[in-house]
């Protein structure tokens, strides 16, 4: 991916807490667009194959959360974790990990991931279409740095993880600062 690629314009369907909603589940739908997430900000986006999966839940997402303040020191305004999962799943995942800092983006339809060129089949795991692992430094919607795991492919037998790890991304940002 070149340095001038823009993230696609997509509308994400999120679920947000709203205590004015009656009943035991006080959440409502809220549409958020790519502009809401990316316009006028320098952010770190990372994307992974699925909520609650082992590497994502044990290492990648919690480590980004732990290193959030270090990323802030490098001029990052926000960190987004995107997955081809719906808003209910993403919210449950964030709650289970007690996330406070990293924001979750539900790409339930896979539209953003497809338009980023990162949609892969994971039918070998019964997952359907999901995101290849990557991270990107995105400045006002423009991809400035790209961190893609090797071996982009459908039904990959392995789960390469390293290039898009928070440790590697942070080290790279520090080196180019
Ligand atoms: C993992 O995060 O460990 C994982 C991701 C996708 C499929 C299987 C495992």
TrEMBL record:
UniProt-listed Enzyme Commission number(s): 1.11.1.27
GO terms for MF: peroxidase activity
Domain of life of the native organism: Bacteria
Keyword Oxidoreductase among record annotations: yes
Keywords from the UniProt entry: Antioxidant, Oxidoreductase, Peroxidase, Redox-active center
CDD domains: PRX5_like
Domain Thioredoxin: 1-152
Enzymatic reactions: a hydroperoxide + 2 glutathione = an alcohol + glutathione disulfide + H2O
Protein family: Belongs to the peroxiredoxin family. Prx5 subfamily.
Role played: Thiol-specific peroxidase that catalyzes the reduction of hydrogen peroxide and organic hydroperoxides to water and alcohols, respectively. Plays a role in cell protection against oxidative stress by detoxifying peroxides.
Protein name stated in the entry: Glutathione-dependent peroxiredoxin
Source species taxonomy: Bacteria, Pseudomonadati, Pseudomonadota, Alphaproteobacteria, Hyphomicrobiales
